[in-house]
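Subject: design request, 347 residues
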């Protein structure tokens, strides 16, 4: 892949904070985890990455940064492994990103989702609590943790009342992280982001990568819903900078505190699909509206005002800039050599 596709977002506000630091990234080969690992490595950290499965042609692998970190293969459910990682590598900052992230999978397999997202989170928290080195632990929650609220946008002081299996797993993990911060003075902080997008997302049943791949192949993209569901969409490189800035400011924050990160400009699915098709250069493709979505909340979006006011956080990218870079990533990805004779995932 072209090296420019992996150019870093703008530098974090406090680059010296990261130099020679020992950082654990769970889920380091995923969408957010891979870009965060690239940024951390470039800023002089010693990164330990935890992965469960090796996914061919993932972003971390094709970038070459998997060769520049220590990779540990294992599951979040294995608490002795997590305790060993924190102790042996003297981890002082942890980004807990690993999770079962697909809403449809959670609906079909709730027990698996709860094991990974809930038990996995308390295992990470407990391993961190037992370590004398940890000075900052950031847990990735989600806008889905808020569930169905009578008013929007979501704000951090709203109750977490998820009802669907995925939403519940995020509500539980979020509350458990808050409990560790408040009761054990663990320096844990929680992020709740909108729908992340960017190069490296290989879950093609999601709107953005699925639409891009379909459009690049000249195929009409599909919408599972009626197209009028409203969501936040948040570019992954802006999310990386948000995570770094939260860690840099963590000494000034209350343990267990949560922050929303988003652009604050929700779009309907149809509006987002139109922006994607324009970014690909195929606005002529008419989507197939299947109207099959069920048990999903129609409108979900976040207020990022707390992060703007208390962290002085500002996004560095526009939606259009993020989509342009994302489309370029997938154009290049589709040209990569096949793995074991298999073509890139269909949508």
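Subject: RE: design request

Done. Sequence follows.
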């Amino acid at each position: 892949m072209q090296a420019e596709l992996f150019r870093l977002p703008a530098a974090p506000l406090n680059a010296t904070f990261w130099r020679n630091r020992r950082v654990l990234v769970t889920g380091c080969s995923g969408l957010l985890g891979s870009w965060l690992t690239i940024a951390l490595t470039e800023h002089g950290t010693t990164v330990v990455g935890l992965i469960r499965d090796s996914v061919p042609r993932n972003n971390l692998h094709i970038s070459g940064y998997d060769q520049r970190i220590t990779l540990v293969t294992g599951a979040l459910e294995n608490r002795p492994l997590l305790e060993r990682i924190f102790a042996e590598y003297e981890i002082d900052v942890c980004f807990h990103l690993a999770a079962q992230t697909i809403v449809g999978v959670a609906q079909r397999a709730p027990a698996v989702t709860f094991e990974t997202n809930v038990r996995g989170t308390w295992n990470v928290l407990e391993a961190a609590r037992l370590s004398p080195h940890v000075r900052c632990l950031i847990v990735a929650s989600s806008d889905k943790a808020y569930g169905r609220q009578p008013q929007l946008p979501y704000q951090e002081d709203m109750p977490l009342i998820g009802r669907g299996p995925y939403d519940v797993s995020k509500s539980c993990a979020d509350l458990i992280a808050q409990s560790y911060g408040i009761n054990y003075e663990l320096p844990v902080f929680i992020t709740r982001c909108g729908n992340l997008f960017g190069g490296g997302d290989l879950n093609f049943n999601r709107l953005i990568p699925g639409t891009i791949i379909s459009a690049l192949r000249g195929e009409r993209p599909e919408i599972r819903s009626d197209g009028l569901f409203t969501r936040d969409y948040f570019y992954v490189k802006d999310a990386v900078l948000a995570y770094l800035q939260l860690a840099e400011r963590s000494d000034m924050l209350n343990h267990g505190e949560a922050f929303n990160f988003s652009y604050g400009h929700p779009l309907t699915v149809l509006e987002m699909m139109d922006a994607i098709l324009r970014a690909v250069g195929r606005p002529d493709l008419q989507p197939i509206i299947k109207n099959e979505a069920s048990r999903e909340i129609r409108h979900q979006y976040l207020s990022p005002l707390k992060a703007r006011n208390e962290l002085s956080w500002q996004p560095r990218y526009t939606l259009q800039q993020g989509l342009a870079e994302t489309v370029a990533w997938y154009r290049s990805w589709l040209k990569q050599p096949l793995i074991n004779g298999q073509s890139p995932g269909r949508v």
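The first strand starts at residue 22 and ends at 26.
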